[in-house]
Amino acid sequence: MKILIKNCNLISMDESRPKIEYGIDILINEDKFEKIEKNITQDSSYKIIDATNKYVLPGFINTHSHIGMAIFRESVDGYTTQDWLNQKIWPIEDKLTKDDIYHSSVLSCVEMIKTGTTTVNDHYFSPNSVINAVLKTGIRAELTRVVMDAGGGMDERFAELEDLISNYNKKYNNIYISVGIHGLYTASKPCIKKAIELAKKYNLNIHMHYLENSMESIDISNNYNSQKPYNIVKDNFKDTNCIFAHCVKLENEDFEVFKDYNIKISHCPVSNLKLGCGIANIPKMLENGITVSLGSDGQGSGCNLDMFDTMKFTGLLQKGINENPKLLSSYEILKMATINGAIALNKENLIGSIKENKLADLIILDLSSVILQPINDIFSDIVYNCKGTNVITTIVGGKILMEDRTLIGLNEDEIIKNCENIMIKYTNKKRA
Ligand SMILES: [Zn+2]
Asked: CATH homologous superfamily of domain 2-58+361-407?
């Protein structure tokens, strides 16, 4: 099917085009952008979307989340990261069924479709449940079976990851597989070595938590004969494509290794604040030419998957703690949420901007609401005043997943009810 989006205000994030263009038509042919120009000739067979006065952007790329964790939304207040995992998350995660994780993942996918994310980089276990949710909802996802060996079980986890690779790598156009390592504090040297070998063998990205809080650095040194985290990275991660999530507690040497090895960062400011981890040094990452993309983390620590929140916190935090309002332009933050996410995932030729022959992932924004008007600076208006609810239409790979705020082929009430029942089952909480 061909879709023709008429007369939009286009923010393509494509460097070869102006940052904003008015009165543009976009023709989508099957799963790709075919033509992006003014006054494209209509054909009666096209599905027409009138986008007059609306803004079109590439869909957001959320580079760190745990989409099976929707049922843990707002379960963290009053806990440290380690206490929250030990007391609230891991005891329940051990009991979760495949169905529980499927329903939780469906809710997350719907949350992303309704708030403008078209690609997510997921980090969880039970990959078949996550895959079924991704296929059901039509979002684009890179996913994994996370490996670690703290507490045993390394071989089973690797067997599941290898099954995942052999069954699903390159099987679907909207599903990609990565090698997920939980973190250096939970994965020993033999474990990371095996994971890295696997990533190299199949040319897959590595997705890992890294230096989220001060305690983690101590735990890593205890796990690695008093070695510093950056030395472990330096000794083991050469010639890999890595996305490290959080990176709040980087030392000078970390910046050097990240630069040398082209390690990409998923900055998760909301989660870092909620868990009291600290604030990542984004200006120093950028000064060193390191790719910074944005992530929401799971709903347990990250509150929600709305990338507008993530963008707003990214800008406000850095300006505030550095006492410098000139830091991070809004356009730069938009890049972090779109094209930088594609670079982090090694997929900048496929997604991240609206460009002929790229995969047709886009969102349409209605900015007519009073809190967005009048528009002095469109990029700042989007980064600081827009909310997920301003996204009216979401298209992934040429498929309309939401049109005029209505989900296509999904029953939102049922999806919420399913997750509520799971939450009640494990916490014995009565419905509010
Ligand atoms: Zn995480």
From this structure: Urease, subunit C, domain 1 (2.30.40.10)
